[in-house]
Amino acid sequence: MDPAGIYIHIPFCVRKCPYCDFYSVSDLATIPVFVDALIAEMTLRRQPEKVFDSIYIGGGTPTVLDQEQVCRILEAAGREFAIDPGAEITIEANPGTVSNARLRAFRSAGINRINIGVQSFDDANLEFLGRIHTAEDAKNALHMAEDAGFDNIGLDLIYALPDQTRRNWQKDLETAVDCAPAHISAYMLTCEPGTPLDSDRIAGRFKPAHDSRQAEFFMHARDFLRRHGYEHYEISNFARSARYRSRHNSKYWNNIPYVGFGPAAHSYAPPVRSMNVRSVAEYVEKIREGRLPVGETEKLNWQQLMIEAIYLGLRQAVGIDCAAFANRFGVDFKQMFSDLIGRFTAKGYLMEHDGRIVLTGRGMLMQESIAEAFIETL
Ligand code: SF4
After folding, report:
1. Are residues 233 and 372 in the same domain?
2. Which residues contact 262 (CB under 8 A, 6 or more apart)?
3. What average pLDDT does this structure show over 328-332?
4. Of 86, 237, 240, 336, which sits 20 to 30 A from 199 (CA to CA)?
């Protein structure tokens, strides 16, 4: 059985970015109480018999925690769970909340991968995105991470901002490559329902980038990063080599169990998915009462599992492994979807490679609608 993953959600941000729909709050006063509750949740969910080979401290902004708090969380994880000695241990960092001392302490505590939320190297873009840092801060954070001894550094970029030019996106990509990170995530800006960014869109305060521009930027990023030695292993993710793919995120895409801690964190023990309550206060209260802070639980049926396998398989460069699909669902994928496979292959969106059904670059652009077409025929 594949080792499982641990996700730790730190639900605090200095300021909320208008495009973000992750759960986080800006009242940092409750951090100490939250950290105690988080450690207590680990004790409540302890699973000494299962091996975990990834820990991902995400959020929110984990780097609002001080070194002592992060060390206590990692110690608790090591006490309550069997962590593989070669585990990938990642922390997400906001360039506005890092310091040399803090990053050194994180590295000494055993964190061996850092993902920095750069988003853009252009100050005007950062202002539009409501980020708390400048482009200079982002570059400094990357240097500090390297100085602290991290050799597995990732950075996030956001593209297809309103009015962003191809030249502007090109400059972000060039600067990112010049920094030589091991991993780059490139996310298309989306207006998630309920966010301030979406309200601004609805009110006509800006016009989102046109579909054709989004497509052009996606293809450009793919071509540029591949030419500079990054493999495009998932729609939004590029790694310098297979060793630098996100081991933790790969669990989400490949039906591997994970346990999530903190408010709004998801857990998955196939076929059951659950989500913790989406409120720091409620979370702390439940833990104080000695109860698991679970808000929702869903048992996925055979069809839902198949839908996920198709959707997530098509997001990845490895595609859908037909033999593994047959093993898992007792279904011959190629036979079941022969018409669609033929149609999308003829259009240049899909190809068969090594017993796998894989999207081409152009196909990745259409991933949502292609996956939907497969799912509709189920
Ligand atoms: S810092 Fe990250 S988690 Fe926090 S609001 Fe901004 S995008 Fe969301």
Report:
1. no
2. 8, 9, 10, 11, 34, 38, 41, 276, 283
3. 96
4. 237
pLDDT at 48 over 90: no
For a ligand 1 pocket test, name from 8, 23, 94 the mutation site with the most ligand atoms within 8 angstroms of its C-beta.
Answer: 94
Do 193 and 310 fall within a single domain? Answer: no
Same domain? For 319 and 205 the reply is no
- The answer to whether 119 and 141 have CB atoms below 8 angstroms apart is no
What percentage of the chain exceeds 70 in pLDDT? Answer: 100
Q: Using a 6 Å cutoff on CB, does residue 60 contact ligand 1?
A: yes
What is the Å distance from ligand 1's center to 282 Cα? 21
Mean pLDDT over each residue of the chain, to the nearest integer: 97
Residue 45 included in any domain: yes
**pTM assigned to the model:** 0.97
- Tell which atom from ligand 1 comes closest to the C-alpha of 19: 7
Range(s) of the domain holding residue 208:
4-253
Answer whether residue 246 is part of any domain: yes
pLDDT per position as a tens digit, 185-195:
999 999 999 99
Which is it for the CA torsion 69, 75, 78, 81, positive or negative?
negative
Same-domain status, 223 and 307: no
Q: How would you classify the pairing of strands 113-119 and 153-159?
A: parallel
Provide mean pLDDT across the span 124-147: 98
Domain shared by 212 and 347, yes or no: no
307 shares a domain with 248: no
